[in-house]
Design a protein that fits this description.
Neutral Protease, domain 2, Immunoglobulin-like, 6-stranded antiparallel β-sheet, 8-stranded mixed β-sheet, 30 strands, disordered N terminus, single chain, alpha+beta
């Protein structure tokens, strides 16, 4: 009965797009997107507003969309915005009142129609894209909304080239119409990608739910292997929360010669990978770990979310200090899922965590920016990195991943293996998303941790979340009988505190370490390194040349700075970066053994 009523409502909405003479629901909105000239890279958009009883109406296009915390200015691609009303399409006055809002007089007509074009040629899983081979629609970059109708259902119709045979999207099709879709509300529309073209699909069931993998672009994947391995990931991710919220889930995978990354959606993800990624075990595992990370977002971010993301403001930044949990914990569970699903062994799992610990320990920015601040300032810093970023900021992905691991170890240790971080996330998901229908704040996480472990986490949050104190990685790993080893501690590696890249003509400084010798004595990013103590250097001998000089001695570096040749004297110093390895204790305590086994899922 429910499905019959649903398709009846959907069909009526579709009929509205075909005839204005049929009585229409007050205040409804309909979309049509045409892409009949794909080589132009222009989508043609038509929006029809029915029976909207106001003197004027504002059409708005988002400037960002959830999942990628940067103002991307989608309206910059809009052209030729026009408006009319009535069957005879009388023109309507248009006023652009800000960068993403077009105001038109309504005229109290039965309907108003707006049309515009959107240029879409940025090949990214975050953007809409159109060329001769396919279309990828991210509706927030393409389709405008009216504030008063954001929660109103609508219809989307697609017009595409006849030789394109496939359309894939989690949106529900209108019965009997391959090109028309029912939209529950605007937020769902924004959060649901659409792929159109002649792509291949892989279909399988996992945890009792249909899954589809849309494979666009030539590649060397094995469908049976993809189905089998993604099923393992889905099973392990679902086990954390005890249920899977999908009716159907879609992986959109775009293959190219470059690009890597993913963007989560409410019941899908868009992923960009190298087209030949499946032939190499390491790169294939990178693909699976990306899939694990994005799939985990089904629960963490899309449902259990920061309270600030309960209501999306598409016109400006939405700040939260919890990205270290949303992205960092997802990175940690990405590693756990890969390990528990059998793609990583214990050594790989642990070494990946140690590598993340190295990155934070060796970044001067960890002394400047807390992970809470990194989350809040993602809009202006994480996605806008420059040559000084490592000196001034840290990644909420990387540090959040480590904090997830340390909290997991702390909880397991405090409860003798009875409670893990999995249990905490499961509890928060059911308490806040399922029961209260609201997001969380940092204090909610802290309260849950303290209640379940009967431990005080005030110091942990003050020092590591809101503060910049060095992480005591050794202490937490020791809970599991693991001894942290710094391989650099016993070596006499030397450094002047720079990174460089090879370019035609020489070595170009790309990074200068804060408070290092080069930083203090005036080496700049962009300088070309020519010689040390009168001897020509290149990428093959620069490290050997530095190693010949004793720690504490000075060396003269000949550099080229914007065409000016000059000498700079630098003190050679010991390299104080860390390079971690680990040892399992030979005689761990009973509790250490219990913690280790629980952590490893044994």
């Amino acid at each position: 009965m429910k499905s019959v009523l649903f398709f009846l409502v959907c069909f009526l909405f579709f009929k509205l797009t075909l005839s204005a003479s049929i009585p229409q629901a007050k205040g409804s909105i309909e979309y049509r997107v045409s892409m009949l000239m794909p080589n132009s890279h222009y989508f043609e958009v038509e929006i029809r507003l029915n029976n909207f009883d106001e003197d004027f109406v504002d059409f708005k296009l988002p400037v960002w969309t959830p999942g990628s915390y940067l103002i991307r200015e989608y309206p910059k691609n809009v052209e030729d915005f026009k408006a009319s009303y009535g069957e005879d399409e009388k023109p309507v006055s248009i006023q652009k009142i800000n960068k993403n809002t077009w105001r038109i007089a309504h005229k109290k007509a039965d309907f108003v129609k707006v049309t515009y074009r959107v240029y879409a040629f940025e090949e990214s899983i975050r953007m809409s894209y159109l060329d001769e081979n396919h279309a990828f629609i991210m509706s927030g970059t393409l389709l405008m909304y009216v504030d008063a109708l954001r929660n109103t259902s609508s219809v989307l119709k697609l017009d595409y080239p006849e030789n394109w045979k496939n359309v894939s999207t989690p949106l529900n099709r209108l019965e009997g119409k391959d090109y028309a879709f029912y939209i529950p509300n605007y937020d769902i529309l924004v959060d649901t990608p659409i792929e159109i073209g002649n792509f291949e699909t892989i279909e399988f069931n996992a945890v009792g739910i249909p899954h589809e993998v849309v494979m666009y672009g030539a590649s060397n994947y094995n469908p049976d292997q993809i189905s089998r391995d993604l099923t393992k990931i889905i099973e392990k991710a679902t086990a954390v929360f005890g249920e899977n919220p999908n009716e159907k889930y879609t992986f959109f995978v775009h293959h190219s010669d470059r690009g890597y990354g993913g963007l989560e959606h409410i019941n899908s993800t868009a992923m960009g990978v190298n087209r030949w990624t499946y032939s190499n075990p390491k790169s294939y595992n990178n693909f699976l770990s990306l899939a694990a990370h994005e799939y985990f977002h089904l629960w963490l971010v899309k449902r259990l979310k920061p309270i600030e993301l309960d209501e999306i403001n598409y016109n400006e930044e939405t700040y939260t200090d919890l990205l270290w949990v949303m992205e960092g914990f997802s990175s940690y569970f990405e590693e756990k899922i890969m390990f528990l699903a059998g793609f990583y062994d214990e050594k790989t799992f642990l070494n990946d965590l140690l590598h993340a610990m190295e990155n934070i320990q060796n970044a001067p920015g960890s002394e400047t920016q807390s992970v809470s601040e990194a989350s809040f300032d993602a809009w202006i810093k994480y996605y806008r990195r420059n040559e000084n970023s490592d000196n001034s900021q840290i990644s909420y992905y990387t540090k959040g991943m480590i904090l997830g691991a340390l909290l997991d170890l702390s909880i397991i240790n405090a409860t003798n293996g009875k409670i893990t971080l999995d249990n905490i996330l499961n509890q928060l998901y059911h308490q806040f998303y399922k029961k209260k229908g609201k997001g969380i704040v940092s204090e909610d996480l802290k309260i849950a941790l303290e209640k379940e472990s009967q431990s005080n986490f005030s110091g942990f949050f003050n020092d590591y979340v809101y503060g910049t104190k060095d992480l005591d990685n050794e202490k937490y790993l020791n809970y599991a009988g693991i001894n942290l080893v710094d391989l650099n501690a016993s070596e006499n590696t030397k450094s002047i505190g720079i990174k460089y890249r090879k370019e035609t003509g020489g070595l170009i400084v790309s990074y200068v370490l804060k408070n290092g010798s080069a930083y203090e004595n005036g080496i700049y990013v962009g300088d070309e390194l020519i010689a040390i103590n009168g001897y020509r250097i290149n990428e093959n001998n620069i490290n050997q040349m530095i190693d010949r000089i004793n720690v504490g001695e000075k060396a003269t570096f000949l550099i080229n700075r914007k065409g000016v040749i000059k000498n700079v004297d630098l003190e050679i110093r010991k390299d104080n970066t860390v390079r971690y390895s680990y040892e399992l204790l030979k005689n761990p305590s009973k509790n250490q053994t219990k913690v280790y086994k629980t952590w490893m899922g044994k």
